[in-house]
Amino acid sequence: MKDQLDRTPWAWLLLGALLLVASQMRVGMGVLAWIAPVSFLHYIRLTSGWRSRVVFWLVNLCAWSAVMLKITTHPLPAIAALGWAVPFSVVFVVPYLTWPSVRRQLGENAGTLTFGTMMVVGEWTLHAALPLGVWGSAANTQLDQLALLQLSSVTGLHGVSFLIYTVAAVLERLLNGERSTVRRAALVAAAAVAGTIAFGQARLGLASFEATPTRLVAAVGTDSVVGTEPDLPTEERLRQDEQGLMARTETAAQAGAELVVWNEGATMVWPEQEEAWLDRLSQLANRLGIDLVAAYVVPLQTEPLFYENKYVFVRADGTIDHTYFKHEPVPGEPAVRGDGPMPLVEDARGNVGGAICYDYDFPNLALGNARNGADLVALPSSDWRGIDPIHTQMAAVRAIEGGTSVLRSTRFGLSAGIDSWGRIRGWHSAWDDEQRVLLVHLPRRGVETVYAALGDWFPTTCGLFSLFIFGVSLRRRLAGR
Q1: Residues in a beta bridge with 214
Q2: Per-residue buried b or exposed e for 242-275, using 16+ beta carbons within 10 Å of the residue's own CB
Q3: Is the pTM here over 0.85, yes or no?
């Protein structure tokens, strides 16, 4: 069968596209992420010339468009999928196109390593240089593999992606019939995967033996649909939304919650009404004796719509500790962009950091919380059907990276309390019922991680290694002329 496919290389290309679509995003099968690059690499090995490379990019563009269409549901228009698919198809195709040259100049092992490092650089570019976050990362296909994800505490999520891509490159060499020189590479790859899983299981096992003091916290949802419909809510609708929020907050406080976090855009407040609104929040927190993270939007103009997407942190004595503006609005979101350092509320029961939804698709912002000394991060969020529950599961990787717990309070999705090892301690889906109150015990203290201390050392190393390899390859090519 392989020989028949080799005679029609485009079959490998189409197979790779199908595997990519089947492995990524909603209803993705994570195991396929380890083999999807095999088909693509084999197509590149069997073909040459600029036409085959253009076809390769076009097929990847179509595949990534299909991937993004899987998560592009109401209220997003289908055309939005292209806004993500185009940059994905560029940054993830470049490593495939550079792989043959390195392999020919420096050998198969160098090609294998460079392919993995270049894919990491591509992933890193999406959140470090572009406003696309960690969407499209191979590591996100392994969200159910908690032991494997513990590697993120050392390398960030990109270490997991590197494993996936290098294993795929080794598998392609086996598929191509290479035997003698690939054995050592295969053994190293197998040992790396086994060692990573063993490390993760040991880390989780040790964590389960530790006595961990906890605090009871709550995620409170809203009935608000602000931002998902063409018209802004009426005064009557806003009054109903506020009543629901206040009642659910009181329910959480009566159950013993010390910290209550509303979901992103829990309601809308007109600028001229905000002062009175803040007074009501202060009175609520003071009366209930809770810390309150109240997230809401303030429209600054209506034609075209432009608003503040923020939360206020209200202490139990009624004082407002700080106001946080969303630092990374979703591309196309007409919101004020926040700046400045990540917030921190120092508390004997555990320091609390914060962010809003899409902010936590950017590891550098989560890293800011960890380096500030946050033990728990309040994360008001708002999703849609297409990214539920994946988006909440992705926040678990930020928890592992930084060693912080995360309380993700989610509108139109899964709310969850996640501990420092990425374990979901409690959850509640906004689609289950209208109660929309999640109570969960989370650790009072975070844990130290290598990633929190060193940051993006791994993608930086991958970038430097790739540059070194390209330099050596270019030198040999020039010397051979």
Answers
A1: 443
A2: bebbeebbbbbbeeebbbbbbbbbbbbbeeeeee
A3: yes
CA distance 127 to 157: 12
Structure confidence at residue 178 (pLDDT)? 81
Rounded CA separation 257/245 (Å):
15
* Distance from C-alpha of 436 to C-alpha of 366, rounded to nearest angstrom: 26
Q: What is the average per-residue pLDDT within 247-264?
A: 98
Q: Quick one: how far is CA 344 from the chain centroid? A: 22
Per-residue pLDDT reduced to its tens digit, 455-471: 999 999 999 999 999 99
Residue 135: pLDDT band by 50, 70, 90 thresholds?
very high
Structure-token pair, residue 142: 């392994």
CA-based nearest residue to 20, from 168, 235, 147: 168
Lay out the sheet containing 437-443: strands in order across. Answer: 320-325, 305-314, 291-302, 259-262, 214-220, 437-443
Residue 436: which H helix or E strand, with range? Answer: none
> Closest Cα to residue 294, out of 347, 361, 242, 359?
242
Whether 409 contacts 219, CB under 8 Å: yes
Residue 66 reports pLDDT greater than 70: yes
Secondary structure (DSSP) of 77-116: -TTHHHHHHHHHHHHTTHHHHHHHHHHHHH-HHHHHHHHH
**Cα–Cα distance between 230 and 346 in angstroms, integer?**
40
Q: Report the alpha-carbon distance of residue 36 to residue 23 in Å, rounded.
A: 8
Contact call for residues 252 and 220 (beta carbons, < 8 A): yes
Residues linked to residue 308 through DSSP beta bridges, in sequence order: 298
Q: Which residues contact 421 (CB under 8 A, 6 or more apart)?
A: 146, 150, 203, 204, 207, 399, 400, 447
The domain limits of the chain are: 2-208+456-479, 214-444
The superfamily (CATH) of domain 214-444 is Carbon-nitrogen hydrolase (3.60.110.10)
Are the beta carbons of 200 and 150 closer than 8 angstroms?
A: yes
Q: Tell me the three state secondary structure of residue 295.
A: strand
Dihedrals phi, psi of 335, to nearest 5 degrees: -125, 150
